[in-house]
Amino acid sequence: MDPDRYVRSEVSGGFVTLTLDSPHNRNAISSRLVGELREALADAAADDAVRAVVLTHTGSTFCAGADLSEASGATDADPASLAAGRTAQMTELLRAFLELPKPIVAKVDGHVRAGGMGLVGACDLAAAGPASSFALTESRLGLAASIISLTVLPRMSSRAAGRYFLTGERFGPAEAEAMGLITTAAADADATVAAWLGELARASPQGLAESKKLTTARMLADFDRYGDEVAAQSARLFGSAEALEGMTAFLQRRPPWWAPAR
Known about the structure:
The protein is α/β, with parallel strands linked by helices. It has one domain (about 5-200): Alpha-Beta Complex (2-enoyl-CoA Hydratase, Chain A, domain 1). The chain is built from ten helices and nine strands. It has helices at about 30-45, 70, 80-100, 115-120, 150, 160-165, 175-180, 190-200, 205-240, 240-250; strands at about 5-10, 15-20, 50-55, 60-65, 105-110, 110-115, 125-130, 135, 185. The strands form two sheets. It has a six-stranded mixed β-sheet with strand order 1-2-3-5-7-9, with helices on both faces. α1 (about 30-45) runs parallel beside α3 and α3 runs antiparallel to α9 (about 205-240). About 40% of the residues are buried.
């Protein structure tokens, strides 16, 4: 196993576990992490011995959202080109989750923020342990949950979406289960996922693939219908002066100009 990889892959008992392991940035969605996830999903799709995928994490954070050191232009890349490239990467990644002909099970016991919510929403089953917390923090940075709305909005009740998309406040696994974002708020996420895998092992590969097509069809239709529109919004916002201030303030651990002083 390559110790330098951001996404670790392990096949056992007919299932592959993909572990987000990028502790230096709290498993943030960087170009490298997206590329490794896409590669791992393609490998899972091609392996007839794999019946389902488990997506989990190391550390206390499942995924912190976008890698703001990339998104804020804290690299040598042109900010506008970078924003467009990141948007395309994230769109393709979420579509790959939905199109994979095998179930993807999220096993979470840590913090989920912003783009990480899109990953959870794209999974077919999701168990969150007691250390989990969730937040759509984009509005606090001058952004919006553009691309990830395609996988998050179908999971949440409309009232919950109206609240948490706007306020950016945190909520726990019980609230996430009640609104439909996750399947189960679990006392023991490992045990819950193990039980699900036992049930999935009883299903045929064809049965799983065709059943998943039914459950993801409407989300994929939304990608076709709204994908270009929300991608354009995302790229525009990431390239804006207000978002640059929000992301820079976050990295500098200070309030942006529009927020009250701490």
